[in-house]
User: What shape does this take?
Amino acid sequence: MSPAGDAAYIQVEGLAYATTNPNGIHLVTIVDEYTLTYPLTGAGEVFTIGGGNDKVLSELVDGAVSSILGSCVFSDPSSDDEESIVLATNSVAKLVSLRSPYTVTDLAYPSTETLDAAVELLQAFDRVILFRDGDRPWEWVPGGKPVISSSYVSATGVVTVTCRDHGLKVGDVVTISDIGFSATPTTADPNGSKTVASVTSADVFTFVISTGSGNETYTPNTGKMVADFFTLAPAGAYTQPQTFPITAADVVVSDGLVTVDLLTAGATNNTIKAGDFVTVYQSAAAELSAMEGKSYQAVTANAETITFYAPVGDYNTAATDVFEFGGRFSIGAGFMNMPGAPWGVYFQRRLWVPFWHSPAGTYSSPTYTAKDQHDQIAASDILDPWTYDQIESQFRITAGIADHTVGLQPFYEDALMVLNRNSMHLVVGTQGSLSDTVVKELTREVGCLARKSIVSQGNSVFFLSDNGIYGVGFIEGYNLRGIEEPLSKPIQPIIDRINRTLASKSVGIYFNNRYYLALPLDSQAGAGDATGNNSVVIFNMLNKGWESLDTFGEGNFNILNFHIARAEERNDLYAINEFGGIHKLESSNLPVDTLSFDVLGGASDYSVDSVLQTRSYDFNQQDRKRFSAAQVQCQSDNAAADVVFSFSAEDPDSGAETIGSIVDFLGSELDPNDTANLRMRLAGMRGFMGTLTISANLAGSAPVGRLKVQSVAVDATLTNRQTISQH
Assistant: This one.
């Protein structure tokens, strides 16, 4: 259990009680090794123990039952109708298939590694990247990594494998496939499940098989190294690619295959491997000049020879014309590995990350030194998440003013929006080379408070700021519009309840023409009693208005992430809570929520105590009114329904008044799948404006059915004037 004074989530079961239920999941304070405390709302009492079922389950942050520290959607390229969600716990990742019934596969972390803080996950390129703030990232590559070369020594049974950025540790078990050999082996087959015996470098590892009858250099063919777990990402000081100023005499071209003999030229290749791209920087020989300035992928590469294909004619001469080629040049300070980023965004075939740490050290012992500036971002090479040019591909957004980067959002055309804490910017010109990229300041009037609240839809961007929820649009030339007042002005009382400490954890997503935003709401403004994102506000893009505030029947149900994914043909919206439950939203019309606090089970039903409140009807006039009648057109779902209607007029002399229920008006509940046009008298209530409230009628704690409200109309009379109606 955590040390004394720490907070942790604990699950309590089996305590007998009279009025206040002490069981369930609670945020507790550890007093000592025998005592913990947590708050309950209700009458004071002594709980009964000793019945045999009372117990405290494992602390939800230990290795037995882990809390969720991050998640992302994973789309399997081999399936076109199924996706999964990856959940990162402190000790292992869970790959949860969304096809019912859920199936779960463990994805282990690098050996001896665990997580102790929130992380971000992202599927980009052909892998899932796990970001760790100020630390080495991890990656899971489900399709495996190509084996560049491999060889076998019969006397020791050692197979040496070259695989770019393998990320392995000694003891890891990997699957090797499709490596060819000259003769059918008896005991020297390099394919199959193998245990890593040694790690020579970031690109070379060994494993041992039984001794055979002779040494052999294997043919990789389509050789793969597949690890069904997270491996280490490239780290430490970046090994800068070499360039080779040789002569045309060292180059032979036959049927388009260019062979460069480095041994004859007195050079040694230590950095370029098969699959890397090489660039021809200079060619004085006319026959080879067509390659100048172009890049080609190396077919083979060893210390003495590099080969690649190029569209030039056969060539073999002793000419001494200069021929310079090699890896890509960086601008100025050289390349670096990913700088210990806390998160990243995939855009224009690059990974864009905060540049808040400087990477150094070695592959086995990398270091990350925090930078003084938190307003810098960096972009990876195209289709390479691990290589960053320290000059050409990094951008200082605010040049040292009191501001820092909160989030990045891909925008239309080739622009990347940078949302800082107190300002907003655009990075324009992100396609191809970044040498002509422009950073443009949009505004200093508003900034972003929560990175995960940022959502774009068309030419608009929505996010949470200090002043509320903003929806800003753009007109031609990336000129901002719509920042005069927050989008959340009509729901300001809800915004006032956002917990100040947890506000930055808010999570948003765009789904089904709606902006969903999960917020940590206190019970009342300034109470400070929220423990996470316990509520969701929903903005309807079609109606241009806020349509719902959703809360949940369990106070500890806090939303960590939203994801859009599919189990079959259609996308669905999923919410992940911090205990690992995966919940499909908007999937049922039943008046219950089914909530889970575990990856696979423990789900319980909670009744939905729903309330619909109309807008305030003022009839576009400020005069005092006498409200005479209301009319509601409604339809029941597949069960009989009953609701309670009440009306309130905004006036010191009037308050909310219950009008009646469906049973009162019809004599019975509304039959399943039936419609009704209910007209009700308002008894002449007086006020400047009026609001109709429709509440679920509860049978015990369960609502009686579920009602779809199709239209509402209210009739009123201006004092001493004509009757008017408003819908």
Q: What stands out?
A: Residues 232 and 515 are 36 Å apart (CA to CA). Residues 57-65 have pLDDT under 50 and may be disordered.
